[in-house]
Design brief:
Length: 216
């Protein structure tokens, strides 16, 4: 990777895993020293992350890790719903056969659920939804969806998916979505996507309220 890419990956990963907490000011020198690159590529990385909505730059001071607001939660999930409804409908219209890949991803989720591996389970969950989005072949839709999932990870979805009951419910809903797509029932598939994401939105809302209460 280029020096800028190294700085970008380093900074983004630490934002996503919470090491660079929301509301924290990060200095260019801090990242420069950690990655072993000069400040110029760090500045480039910060600009990319600002464009993705993760940082807000302050000249000569550094970059603020942008806090997640209740409105952000609503916006992210509403946009995910729009994109994923489009994706499953497009897959059905094109009569694409994604069964093999979807079976692999669900099997991976089953293994992670059985082992209680919450983070790996969420990664597989992300891949499940991305299979449909990637199948559209629309690069803008794919990039946007990836960015939304990054933002959702910052909202603490991994922790909310740690319970075995929640994991099983996600798996059941994923199987229902796959069944509707394989039956070429676009209305049912879109409805199941809505129900699935609205349940996630409910969890995120409760997490956001809990975060606000603990900080007040």
């Amino acid at each position: 990777m280029s020096a800028a890419d190294q700085a970008y990956v380093h900074t983004k990963q630490r934002i996503l895993d919470g090491e660079y907490a929301q509301g924290r000011l990060i200095g260019e020198g801090e990242v420069s020293d950690a990655v072993g690159v000069s400040r110029t590529p760090v500045r480039e990385a910060f600009l990319r992350l600002e464009a993705e909505g993760m940082l807000q730059l302050y000249p000569k001071r550094g970059a603020l890790v942008v806090p997640i607001s209740a409105a952000d939660v609503e916006d992210v999930m509403e946009t995910r719903q729009l994109l994923e409804r489009f994706a499953v409908t497009r897959v059905i219209e094109l009569e694409l056969d994604l069964s093999s890949r979807l079976t692999e991803v669900i099997a991976a989720q089953e293994r992670h659920a059985a082992a209680g591996e919450a983070v790996a389970f969420v990664d597989a969950d992300r891949e499940f939804h991305r299979v449909f989005v990637a199948a559209t072949g629309n690069a803008i839709v794919i990039r946007t969806h990836d960015s939304l999932r990054d933002q959702q990870n910052r909202m603490g979805l991994a922790a909310m998916s740690a319970g075995s009951d929640r994991m099983q419910r996600i798996l059941d809903q994923h199987r229902e979505i796959v069944d509707a797509v394989e039956r070429r029932d676009a209305d049912a598939a879109a409805s199941l996507i809505d129900r699935h994401l609205e349940e996630t939105l409910g969890l995120l809302r409760r997490a956001a309220r809990g975060s606000q209460s603990s900080s007040s």
